[in-house]
Prior knowledge:
Blueprint: H1 7-14, H2 19-53, H3 59-89, H4 96-136, H5 143-168, E1 172-179, E2 211-217, H6 228-240, E3 245-249, H7 257-260, E4 278-281, H8 291-301, E5 305-306, E6 310-313, E7 318-321, H9 335-343, E8 350-353, H10 361-365, E9 369-374, H11 385-392, E10 398-401, E11 407-410, E12 428-435
Parallel strand pairs: 1-12, 2-3, 3-4, 4-5, 7-8, 8-9, 9-11
Antiparallel strand pairs: 2-12, 6-7, 10-11
Amino acid sequence: MPPRFFKPLAHIQSAGVSPIAAIGFVSVGLTVMITMATIVNTLVAGQFVIAASLASVVRQWWWIASIGAVCVGFLVSIVFPLSFFIPLLSSSKTGIVRLVTVGGMVVFGVSATMAIHALPLYLLEALSLPIQWLIVHRLTPPYLPAGLAILGLGVAFAGVGLALYLGLRAPFVVRDTVSVAERSVHDTKSPPDARDDFAPVHATETLPASSLTIAHLTDLHLGMMRGRAWMERLAGQVNALEPDVIAISGDINDNDLDAFKPVAPALNKLRPKLKGGLVACSGNHDLLFMADEWVSCMKDVTNVNVLANDAVDLGPVIVAGVHDFRGKGTTSCDQKAALCAVDALPPKPVVWLQHQPTGLDAVDAHPNVKVILSGHTHNGQFWPFRFAVMMRYRFIHGLYRLARGTTLIVGAGTGSWGPPMRVFTKAEIRLVTLNW
Length: 436
């Protein structure tokens, strides 16, 4: 095994994580992913088993189909976990590594989508078995379940097509309008969960009438699955909106730095009106491996100003941004440093970039922060996963008003993680208009 295969372990160790602990994490993660993928693919295999039984009048074909489908489902289940971990462990990004990565993501995405759409009919098939037994006193061939299976497969394949369409089509443009004309500075001792409005401790600030537009992108996940051509098409769509500022709230990279580097120059196609108005913060995927190298890549080959716990004065507004919570060392999240950078600039409305929509109390308490732009949740991306996201995050998608009056906007993601598919969600560009 070539030494370069273990190259990422050196980065893990330099970040203060024991290689043994990292291997343990990978082992547990691999087990969980195999289990999850096996269940999903076995559900899909079950559809084919029951559908095939319609034409089977010999019992042995039932068992052959059953055993074969389960074996195929299990083998397919291994492909997805390997597609996730191999790129993280291997520095080689050609040949079999790319094939396994792309193939695994697509296979799992198709299987999961089929299972989501076919599961109701699959349960109906199971409920129909006792009825079938009562009617004909035998289960071979089970015509009624097989008919439902065929219907279920039709629905599942249609769902896969829809998921691919929603995942690959141009993002929807969602327009938000936020008034920053006045914002009260509230008493920081007031309870954060109070229902009544906070009493201002001094007069509110009133700004001259004006407006500014921000194209908010998040979770691009550029790399093997979404390459340079996709990014250039997105840039054309964004530029057509003629935004003053283009803000990317993290997860620009999809873990794999080697796959990201050829795509990175396409970010320069984004053209905001304001000079220096192409700004971003890092996301958890950007900092998962080789975080410092990713920051250097963004500085060297793109015009994106990655705000590393810092703020920049763009004239009408100040944009501040922090590293993601996953960052360590030089890429650690430091809200206090970013707020100090804001205070060092002239008092203006502040737009805050933070990848994960959590841990925002200190930001909300700052009188000049008017809008927070976040992402990370993808709005679940695959519909059932939305409920899992809701268990982890209070704010998962859309526009919210925080306790002290700050507007939080959480995007559903402009790209997608893993397979380029969405189920009952859509990719977004949030066009935010600030009025004051």
